[in-house]
Amino acid sequence: MNGHSAIRNPQSAIPITFTLNGKPVSLGVDPAARLLDTLRYQLALTGTKEGCGEGECGACTVYLDGVPVNSCLVPTYQVRGQRVETVESLEPGALEPFERCGATQCGACTPGVVMTASWIREHPELLATHSIRELMAGNLCRCTGYDGIVDSVAEALREPGSGKRDT
Amino acid sequence: MRRREALAKLTGRERYVDDLPLDDFLWGMTVRSPAPRGRVTAIRFGTDIAWPEFVVVDHRDIPGPNVVALIEQDQPVLAAGYVRHVHEPVLLLAHPSREALRRAARSIEVVVAPEPPALDFRAPPGPAEIQYGTDNVLKRLQIVKGDVERALARAAVVVSGTYETGAQEHVYLEPQGMIASFEGAVLVVKGSMQCPYYVLKALQHALAREEALVRVIQTPTGGGFGGKEEFPSHIALHAALLALKSGRPVKLIYDRGEDMAATTKRHPALVRHRTGLGRDGRLLAQDIEVVIDGGAYVTLSPVVLSRAIIHAAGPYACDHVRISGRAMFTNAVPFGAFRGFGAPQSQFAGERHMDVIARTLGMDAVELRRINLLADGQSTATGQVIQDGTDRLAVMERALELSRYREKQRGHAAFNATHATLRRGSGLATFYHGAGFTGGGEVALQSRVRVAGRPDGRIEVLSANIEMGQGTLTVFTELAAARLGVAPEDVTVAEADTARVPNSGPTVASRTTMIVGGLLERAADDLRRRVGLDDTARGAAVQQAIRRWHREHPGEPLVGEAAYERPPGIAWDDTTYRGDAYGAFAWAAYVAEVEVDLRTCATRVIDFVAVQEVGKVLNPTLAKGQVQGGVVQGIGWALMEECKWREGAMANNQLTNYLIPTSDDVPSVRVAFLENPYPHGAGGAKGLGELPIDGPAPAIANAVARATGADPRAIPLTPEKLMELLEIADFGLRIADSAP
Amino acid sequence: MNVLLPGSLPEALDMLASDGAAIPIAGGTDLLVHWPVRVDAHDRTYVDLSRLDALKPLSWTADELVLGGLTTYWDVIRDARAAQEFPLLGNAARQVGAIQIQARGTWAGNIVNASPAADGVPVLMAYDAVVVLESRRGREQVPLDRFYSGYKEMRRHPDQLVVEIRIPRRPYSYQVFEKVGGRRAQAIAKVGLAVTRSGAGWRVVAASVAPTIRRCPAVERLLETGTAIASPEALLPAVARDVAPIDDIRSSARYRTHVMARLLYHDLRDFWGKRG
Ligand SMILES: Cc1cc2nc3c(=O)[nH]c(=O)nc-3n(C[C@@H](O)[C@@H](O)[C@H](O)COP(=O)(O)OP(=O)(O)OC[C@H]3O[C@@H](n4cnc5c(N)ncnc54)[C@H](O)[C@@H]3O)c2cc1C
Ligand code: FES
Ligand code: FES
User: Fold this and answer.
1) Per-residue pLDDT averaged across B270-276, rounded?
2) What is the CATH number of domain C172-275?
3) Which among A14, B173, B293, B625 is placed 20 to 30 Å from A100, CA to CA?
4) Residue of C29, C125, C152, C159 with the most ligand 1 atoms within 8 Å of its CB, for mutation
5) A98 and A83 assigned to the same domain
6) What is the mean pLDDT of chain A?
7) Cβ-count burial of B294 within 10 angstroms (0-12 exposed, 13-18 middle, 19+ buried)?
8) Residue A59's closest chain B neighbor by CA?
9) What is the average pLDDT across B489-512?
C-alpha cells in the first residue's frame, strides 16, 4: 500500500509563499500542518484560537482571500499564493463598538467573533438576505448569550466607514 | 466603566496559557482508563515507538501522597493499579512533538480486569456494585422545619411529582491547560483556573513541597463556569509530575475531545416532591428528596448537594419542610462544580412542580406563586428569616409586565387555535440564589485582600480572585477607584500569582464581587488609615499621602489589608442545617415564551425576560451580560444539551454532537434589575453570576407545558423526548389535524 | 504524510492514476475535522485540488446548470440566478454549517464524502443531478440517484474526480427542502427531506434515515397516483418501505420515522389525493 511507503518516507517541509496580514511570507510547512497551527506555533500569531478543532466553534476564524474560514480545517499548503488575514490585522480603533456593547467576556471566542463580525460590517449588503444572528452562527460563545455580540455588529454597521472594504 | 481587558481580548493580544511563549519545552499527554472499574492487570507499550525519547510517569513517581487534595482525600493523582471510572488518568507522557505523543499514547494498552460498575445513580446498587460505605452514598444531608408528616396528613390536597435533570458540559471556549516549569528550586505552574490556592494546596500535598517552593499563576481564563474550580488541580499535578521527572517545562493542553470526555460536568439529579396544600393553594408542607450523581470520587459533591437542598424548597413560605439529600457514588467520570452548584437542579424541580400543582388545583400559576412567595419576616426552609426589604412580588410583577404575560396568554390561545402545526406558550419561574459560601463556609475560608499604594501614588489590588470573563478586573478597579476617589486608570489589579497575592478564597459561588469586593473596600480603608487619613479622604489627597508615605519610608511596601468577618446577626449550625444559610439571596422572576413545531417537536424560545434583584448593580453592561450569558446557558441545558453515556463516560464528546445554542437559536434576552442595596456587599451588590442559570429551564418547561398540553418532568427536553410526551398526552397532531 | 500539488486537472488525474490510494482534498471541511488526533490519516497521500481553477465556477447552458468540481456552497448562495431557478440549492447551502463552512465546503466534496446526513446531496438528487466523473480513462456520467450503493459506498473509482454536477433546467411546480437538526443553525441533519415536482414527475428524497441518501419510490408513487392520505400515520407504511432509520448518537429511529411522515404529510397537504 502506498500509505505505508508514505510512513517510511514522509515528505519534508513544503515551501510556500502567501500574503499574511498584507505582507508576503515564505516558509516551509509540515504537510500535516493546519493553518491554525502554522499561525500560532510557527508564526507566533496567537490571536487566532483553537476552541474545538472540528470546525464548530469559529474561534479560529481567519479570512482566506477575504472570506471567513475556520483555520483549523485549512491545510497550510492550501494557502499558497493566497491572502490570509488574522485578528492581528484588524484596526483596534474599529473595535470600539464591540468594547462598548459587551461583545467580549472571557475572550476565548472573541478573535473569531470579531473576524466574522468585521466581515459582516464590510459587507452590509449581506443583511438584505441574512440576519446578523444567522451570519454569526458559526461563532460559538458561551459567555455573552450573543446579545452583546449582535448589538455590537448592529452598532458597528451604523457607524460611518462600514462596508468600505472590497474583497 | 468599560471592561478593562476588552481591547486586549478584541485584538487578540490577550495571552491565554496556550499562547504563552515557551522555549525548549515538552508537550504532556494523559493515558487513561478504558474501563469503568477494575484492576489494572497490565500496561502494554507499543513496540513501534521509540520509548527512550519519551518521559513516562506513573503513580510511583509521585513524591507525596497519591491524592488530589479536596474535601476528602480519596481521588488519586494517577490510578495505582485500580480504576474507578473510564478516562481515569493512569500514565503521563511527555515529548517535544505532539504528533509523536499522540501516536505513542495510542500504542499503549491499559488492560483492566473488569468488575461490575455502578452506573445508575437512581437505582439502588446491587451488592457487587457497592464501592463506597455500605450503600454507595457519598453524602447524606437533611433539612427539617416543623413536622412534615403531620402537615401532609392534614393537608386538603397533596401533589407529588418526580423530576430529573441531566448532566451539562461547561463548554468554556478555552479548553483546560497548564504549564509547569522551574525557576530555580521553585515549581511554577501557570494556567487556566478559577482557584489558584486550590491548585497550590493540591500541588503542595501530592508533591510534598513546602509553600515557598510552589508558585501558581493564573493565566487569563477563557471561561470557567465552575469547570475550572476543582479540576485544574489535576492537570497542574500532571504537568508538574512530568516537569519534575524531565527537568524541562511541560505544557499540557487538553483538546476539546479530551476536555469533554475527561473533565467534570453538572451533577445529574433526581428530585421528588410531595406537597401539601390548602384549597386556596397555600403551601402547608413540602417533603422533598434530592438525589445527585456524584461519580467515582467525592470531589465537591457534598457541597453541591448542600446548595441543592438549601434551594430545593424555592423562595416560598412554608412552615413544614423536610428536604433529604443524597449524593451517590457511581463509576462515572466525577461530576463537579458548575454555575449554580446544585441549585439549578433542585429549582428546576421546584418551579416545574409549582406549575404541576397549579394545573392539579386548577389554579393560575402566577396566583399560586403570589400567595406563597416569601414576605419579609417569613423564613426559608433552614429557618433563615428574610428581612432584606426586597419586594419579591414586585420582581414577579415586573417580569409579567415586561413580557406582556397576560396579553400574550390570550394571543397564544388564538394563535394555537388557528395554526396547524405550531403551538405557543409562556412559562414563569420565580427563584432565588444564595450568594457566597454556604453557612460557615466563608468564615472557614478566612479570606484576605490587600490594597497597595505604590510610590507613584497608584493603587494596586491584590487578590487571588480571577478574571474568567465575569468582570472581576473591571469591578475590582471600579470598587477601589470609587472607594478612594481616584481615577480607574490609577488602579491596577495584580496578576493572581500565589507568590504575590493573599488567599482571598476561590472565584466561585457568586462571592467575588459581594464578598471579596467588600474586603477590597475595607483593605482600601486600611490603606488610607496607614497613610494617616480617615475614611473620608479621597482622590488627590489619598494619592499625595501615599507618595509622601513612600518618601518617608523608602523601599518599604505600603499595603492595606482586610480579612473576612461574618456580617452581624448571621448564625448557622452545620450539624442541624439550620440558620442563615447565606448572607444574602438574590431574587428573580423569568418568563420564557416558546414556540413548538408539532411536526418535529422542536422547541424554540422566541422571547425571554429576566428580572432580578441583586442588590446594587455595579456595572450595568457587565451585569446584563452575565444574565444574558447565564440565560442562554440555561436555554441550552433545558432544550438541547444532552450528555450521552457509555459506561459512565460521555460518548458525544464533540461539539458537533453535544450541541450548545448558537446566536441563531436564541432570542434577544431582555434583562431588568430591581435595586435594593445590600449593606454588607461591596458597593451594595449581591452575588449575580449563578442566579441566571436557575430560572430558564423551569420557565421553558412550563412554557412548553402551556403551549402543548404535555407534562414535561425532565430536561433536556429534546424533540425526541417531547415527541414521546405528546404521544402520551395524545395531543398535538390530532388537534393539528382538525385545524384549518 | 505526502501531499501532491497539481496545477491542472490532467496533472491531478495523472497523480490519482499512478497512486491508487491517494485521496483528493478540496475544501477540507470533512477531511480536516479532528485532524490532529486522527493520526492514521496523516499516513496517507493527498492530492490537493484547490488550485484547479477550472473546476471552480458554476456555469449555465441552455438546458443545464453546471456546478464545477470545486464550486462551494457560498458560490451558489451568492448567485442570484441559481437562487431564483433552483431555490432549494441556496436553501440547503445556507443550512450547511455556517458561513465559515459554506465558504470552503464544496458540492462535490459533499457527494463524495457520502454522509447519509448531507444537505447538498438531497437537493441535488431532487433536481435529478448527474455526477460527471473523470479519470485518465475518460469521462463517465452517473445520475446522483444511482450513485450510492451502500453506506459510504459509491460508483466512483479512486482515480476519478467529480469534475461537474449537471442539473437539468426544468420548470418546477412544487419544491421544498426541510432540514431537522438538533438546533436551528450549524447542525447535522437528524432528518432531511427534499421534494420537487416537475414534468418529470415527483421526486422525494430523504436524508439521515437510511445508509445513504435516497429517493423514496413508495412515497413518490402515492403522490403520482393521487392516493388520499388522512394523517401522518397513514404514510408510515410507505415511509417504512423507503427508508430504514437507526438509533444513533443524534436521534432515534422512531423519531426519524415519525418526523419524516409528519413533514411529508403537512408539507404536501395540498397534493394528497389529487392526481395530475
Ligand atoms: C462544522 C461543520 C459543519 C458541517 N455542517 C454540514 C451540514 O450542515 N450539512 C452538510 O451536508 N455537511 C456539513 N458539513 C460537511 C460539509 O462541509 C462537507 O460535506 C463538504 O461539502 C465537503 O466539501 P469539502 O470540499 O470540504 O470536502 P473535503 O473535506 O475536501 O473532501 C470530502 C471528501 O470528498 C472527496 N472529494 C472532494 N472533492 C472531490 C472531487 N472533486 N472529486 C472526488 N472526490 C472529492 C475527498 O476525497 C473526501 O473524501 C459540515 C462540516 C463541518 C466541519
Ligand atoms: S477551532 Fe476551528 S472551528 Fe473551533
Ligand atoms: S466571551 Fe467567552 S466564549 Fe465568548
Assistant:
1) 98
2) 3.30.390.50
3) B173
4) C29
5) no
6) 92
7) buried
8) B173
9) 96
